[in-house]
Amino acid sequence: MRLIIFTTRTKHHTYFIQKIYEEFDIDQIIYERRVLNVSYKIGPFFDREQDDYEELFFDKTAGGCSRQIPEILEQRSVDVYSVNQKGMREFLFAHEPGLIWVYGTGKILPHIIKVPKWGMVNLHGGISQKYRGLDSTLWAMYYGDFESLGLTVHFVSPELDTGDILQQEYLKILKSDEIYHYRYRTTLLATRVSLELLRRFKNDYTQLKASPQLPGNYYSAMPLNKKMIAYNNFEKYKGQL
């Protein structure tokens, strides 16, 4: 099974890659540089606090890893503006991937989705039947929907976050949580679930059973003023625990 990962160069993705590599060979890592540009203000919103908290990814006493991926993986890494750009389809076909695992890139076009033999799998940090797109955790908090925090692992389809679901798990708010803890917690969940699915696939690819979903509404990046409402809702909910 040849595995390719689409992702970005961030702390949490560095952690994810290394944990996957502890058990599975990674043929190529494609790092996307494309960023979202919006006409409204979306931050700063606990950016420094989140960055400091995510140092846990590199704390060996907390199960963390190295700050740098192994040299052999750097040699297999390619930085691109977009995973859809010219030449990517041919590059991917040359590596004959069985699976492509997607964690944190932008929308992927059909000519790329069709490349891997067994499919392309996305890690969506939310419950996709209710919140597709960006900032799904914050949108759930904004609407006071604290039962809809979690992770959806699904096959990639042309429309964002609508593919058949392989696995879905929920996160519960803890009394000790801060709002900037959730990317860390979601990353741990995404790593565990990905390893479980890859183990099953390695043993027998037919075990990767997926269920059709009724997709939820699509949400773009949350404006800063709405993030503050989500934060206030979160603090109020946590205070009632």
Automatic annotation (TrEMBL):
The keyword Membrane does not apply. GO terms for cellular component: cytosol. Transmembrane segments: none annotated. It comes from the Bacteria. Keywords: Purine biosynthesis, Transferase. Pathway: Purine metabolism; IMP biosynthesis via de novo pathway; N(2)-formyl-N(1)-(5-phospho-D-ribosyl)glycinamide from N(1)-(5-phospho-D-ribosyl)glycinamide (10-formyl THF route): step 1/1. SUPFAM superfamilies: Formyltransferase. GO terms for molecular function: phosphoribosylglycinamide formyltransferase activity. This is phosphoribosylglycinamide formyltransferase 1. It comes from Candidatus Scalindua rubra.
